[in-house]
Design a protein that fits this description.
Length: 217
């Protein structure tokens, strides 16, 4: 589990094909690796990856075909910058929102504008996840916990303050860039709760014919 508060910006130093899968190696920049162990999870541009090798300055992880199909990793190259966050601890300050590291879809930057010192982005999203995105709600974009400031058909607006731009990769985003999106997990649980409740409702045996026969219609 993560919070979407990026701890460091790393660099992809190697992408190695492994059959249909790939292995990646990431230089972690300023990320503290002193408490990392084999098998730990590190969110890499919002994708939960399992550490299979590491040292004080880098880690490697394997990506399955499923991960490649569902994320923007197919467009990445060695040298690309990535947002990094280690899995949260029980003692971690919860500054963002609940992030699972399981990408729901790939979006695209469709507009970029400067508004004072802030950067305003419009981001397109797959239609099947649009229902989970609410104005003033949370969304994860390449591993960054952000607030949705406005909506239009299958697109949402982000306003990026200077600090976020300095501490993540988002200041470098240009029109046409693909980004990993994860919707607020609470929205998915709420949908499932409501759907389950509807499914469990017993079908009524009262019909229009019954009402007519008994003088109610």
């Amino acid at each position: 589990m993560f919070t979407g508060i990026v701890e460091a910006v790393g660099t992809l130093t190697a992408i190695t094909p492994k059959g249909e899968d790939i292995s990646v190696t990431v230089d972690v920049g300023k990320l503290d690796m002193s408490d990392v162990k084999l098998g730990d999870s590190i969110a890499t541009n919002g994708v939960c990856l399992t550490v299979v090798e590491f040292n004080s300055t880098s880690y490697s992880a394997d990506l399955s075909l499923e991960t490649l199909d569902k994320t923007g990793f197919t467009d990445y190259s060695a040298g690309d910058k990535v947002n990094l966050e280690k899995a949260m601890l029980p003692t971690t300050r919860f500054g963002g929102h609940i992030v699972s590291g399981h990408v729901d879809g790939v979006g695209e930057i469709v507009e970029r504008n400067m508004v004072g010192r802030a950067i305003e982005f419009w981001v397109s999203m797959p239609g099947d996840i649009a229902k989970y995105v609410a104005e003033k709600g949370s969304i994860t974009v390449d591993g960054i916990s952000l607030t949705v400031n406005a909506l239009r058909k299958n697109q949402f607006k982000l306003t990026i303050v200077p600090h976020t731009g300095e501490e993540t990769t988002i200041a470098d985003f240009q029109v046409g860039r693909k980004v990993n999106l994860e919707v607020d997990v609470l929205a998915r649980y709420m949908e499932r709760l409501l759907t389950s409740r509807e499914e469990q409702q017993p079908e009524s045996s009262i019909t229009m014919e019954f009402l007519q026969q008994n003088g109610f219609a």
